[in-house]
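[recover] target loaded
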């Protein structure tokens, strides 16, 4: 990179992703602690910050002591959770699932980790569940995680029962992520026209109907004989699902008009692939710029499934594209389509009375 004063060597810069999926940039010099750079890459402020750090004028922060959650003693909930983290079942989970489960269990342990797990009763878990009633998915995630911890405890003779199994899940409210409308897609495209990275990201999500964890891995290697060929990231370790999807003309046109990365189609400012969470945060900002704060990357997957249902695709056909293994999720889209059709048919009958109800003029005899 040049700024008029000679070559600037950015090879000492590295990217790390925190547990929330945020991408952070650091200066790393051999034999020295790394220094975080907080300005936006590519700006003059970033260049100034980089030079100060390289000249030794910025000191790395002293790491804080580990206060992840309350100290664990044998027999405590924290101790049991730490044992669970070492078991084969937990290690066999996908990286993303492991990360989410750690966040849930660590949060539980920060409050109750020092208490004996042998005395944890269903009523205690119900109380923690009900405290999250405003966010039923979060409450259910906590119950699911605790069920797995105590399943491990029973299987390994740490406990004789699973108190979380006696706590039912809360009913979910609403339909989850907002599904983009055609008008919202057009609004996004107007703010981020074809040729921009944001437009490319939107097209990959919409015309593949895949999760963000999948599209961040799409690249030249994914396209074979005109088809996207890949294994979905979700459950890739336990129940891998490999899909072959035709590259739609709309997506092909966007790919041809976009600047693509070498390893993956979408790359960061440093020409590196995005993490799933890092991409999600970046795409969130692009939606905000387009005046769509209620839209998200996952909502485009729902929009794609909805469009397929509107085009009279069957549940099996939609599942062949989205990779769902059961019709439970997909039936939401086809059910909505059936409702519209039935409503139209019903109103057609309302407008056209049956033959038996038509009035007959009296005979003139």
């Amino acid at each position: 990179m040049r700024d008029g004063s000679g070559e600037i060597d950015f090879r000492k810069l590295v990217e790390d992703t925190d547990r929330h999926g945020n991408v952070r940039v650091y200066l790393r010099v051999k034999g020295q602690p790394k220094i975080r750079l907080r300005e936006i890459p590519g700006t003059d402020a970033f260049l100034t910050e980089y030079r100060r750090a390289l000249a030794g004028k910025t000191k790395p922060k002293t790491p804080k002591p580990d206060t992840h959650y309350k100290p664990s003693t044998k027999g405590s909930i924290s101790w049991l959770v730490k044992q669970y983290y070492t078991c084969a079942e937990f290690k066999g989970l996908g990286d993303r699932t492991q990360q989410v489960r750690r966040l849930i269990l660590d949060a539980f342990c920060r409050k109750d980790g020092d208490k004996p797990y042998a005395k944890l009763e269903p009523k205690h878990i119900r109380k923690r569940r009900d405290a999250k009633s405003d966010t039923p998915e979060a409450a259910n995630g906590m119950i699911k995680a605790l069920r797995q911890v105590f399943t491990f405890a029973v299987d390994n003779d740490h406990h004789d029962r699973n108190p979380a199994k006696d706590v039912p899940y809360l009913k979910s409210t609403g339909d989850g992520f907002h599904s983009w409308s055609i008008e919202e897609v057009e609004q996004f495209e107007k703010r981020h026209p074809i040729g921009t990275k944001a437009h490319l990201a939107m097209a990959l999500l919409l015309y593949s109907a895949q999760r963000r964890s999948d599209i961040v891995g799409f690249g030249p290697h994914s396209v074979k004989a005109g088809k996207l060929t890949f294994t979905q990231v979700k459950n890739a370790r336990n129940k891998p699902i490999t899909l072959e999807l035709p590259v739609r003309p709309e997506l092909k046109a966007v790919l041809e008009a976009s600047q693509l990365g070498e390893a993956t189609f979408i790359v960061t400012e440093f020409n590196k692939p995005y993490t799933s969470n890092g991409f999600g945060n970046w795409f969130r900002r692009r939606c905000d710029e387009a005046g769509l704060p209620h839209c998200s990357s996952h909502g485009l997957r729902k929009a794609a499934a909805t469009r397929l249902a509107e085009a009279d695709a069957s549940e099996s056909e939609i599942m062949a594209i989205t990779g769902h293994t059961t019709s439970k999720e997909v039936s939401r889209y086809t059910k909505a389509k059936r409702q519209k059709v039935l409503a139209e048919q019903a109103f057609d009958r309302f407008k056209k009375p049956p033959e038996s109800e038509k009035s007959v003029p009296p005979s003139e005899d």
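[recover] notes: Strands lie at 13-17, 23-27, 35-37, 223-224, 227-231, 242-246.
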